Amino acid sequence: MELWYTETYREGTRFSMKVKGTLYHAETPYQVVDVVDTDDYGRVMLLDGLIMLTDRDEFIYHEMIAHVPMLAHPNPKKVLIIGGGDGGTLREVLRHPEVEEAHLCEIDDKVIEASKEFFPAFHSAFSDPRSRVFVEDGIAFIERSKGQYDVIIVDSTDPIGPAVELFEAPFFTKVSEALRPGGVFVQQSETVYGNADIVRDLFGQLRSVFPKVSGYMACIPTYPTGFWTFCFCSAGRDPFEAFDAERAARIEARGLRYYNADLHRGAFALPTFVRQVVRGE
Ligand code: AG3
């Protein structure tokens, strides 16, 4: 008998992976957490049945959500990740020697538990002495973190369930207040295919708070449509002015497989239909 996992993107589009078995299942106050083992993508973490990461392609998302803001900042000493309890974004942030403190604020300790048990690739993030994990609501956490961080990254699920408020202007105002002067903020911002309204609305809300907002992209095979966007926001700093090619080369040499110095600029070159959505047209 064959077992298949299927994520429904829209009424008429689905994505399936052949599954060897289920490794972990927990129903938490926030969501359902599963880890399954698949033929082609290795272990996969699902939240409420949606793919969050797979062994085989997690490097793409995690490298791009972390290294773009980290290398857009000249000296990122203190970093906050909201969500991202799996530790993948934290692992990438910690590759930067400038980092003195990296805080991870995850609402659901079962995500952390599942990751520690089934994804050895993220272990280094949790054992690094510079990292500190807070299990609590990201909104409450950020409210008491005024002027604290050089880089803030929101590594959330889709804007449904516990993550809805993380896609709205009142939260972005709190994020802007939690940044140090010159700080930068990046959030995963979904796909434009079939979800253009969500992305247009998100960028509109960001522009109502941040003077500088740009979109960038990465190709992530196991996220809906494979065509993923991120938003880069700041009070004025653009993604390139502080970029230091030598620093980037040192990070690349630490075994990166997607991010590189050319892509730091190239990822911001958006296809026309994506650019229109990002600009609110
Ligand atoms: N965070 C973004 C996942 C969005 C995927 N959406 C979906 N499959 N419908 C992933 C967390 C990884 N650290």
Task: Offer a concise description of the structure.
The protein is α/β, with parallel strands linked by helices.
What features would you describe in this structure?
This protein has 281 residues and is of the alpha/beta class. Helix content is 30%, strand content 33%. A seven-stranded mixed beta sheet has the order 8-7-6-9-10-12-11, sandwiched between helices. It has a five-stranded antiparallel beta sheet with strand order 1-2-3-4-5. It is globular, with a radius of gyration of 18 Å. The mean pLDDT is 96. Bound molecules: 1-{4-[(3-aminopropyl)amino]butyl}guanidine (AG3). The site of 1-{4-[(3-aminopropyl)amino]butyl}guanidine (AG3) has 14 residues, from strand 5 and helix 2.
The biggest sheet, with number of strands, parallel, antiparallel or mixed sense and barrel status, is: 7 strands, mixed
Helix count, DSSP H or I runs of 4 or more residues: 10
Order of SSEs, N→C? EEEEEHEHEHHEHEHEHEEHHH
Q: Helix/strand-derived class? A: alpha/beta
Termini Cα gap = 49 Å
Bound molecules: 1-{4-[(3-aminopropyl)amino]butyl}guanidine
Helix residue percentage? 25-40%
Write the layout of secondary structure elements.
Layout: E1 3-10, E2 13-27, E3 32-38, E4 42-47, E5 50-54, H1 58-72, E6 78-83, H2 88-93, E7 101-106, H3 109-118, H4 123-127, E8 131-135, H5 138-143, E9 149-155, H6 169-178, E10 179-191, H7 196-207, E11 212-219, E12 227-234, H8 245-252, H9 261-266, H10 272-278
Parallel strand pairs: 6-7, 6-9, 7-8, 9-10
Antiparallel strand pairs: 1-2, 2-3, 3-4, 4-5, 10-12, 11-12
Residues 50-53, 84, 86, 88-89, 155, 157-158, 188, 223-224 line the site of 1-{4-[(3-aminopropyl)amino]butyl}guanidine.
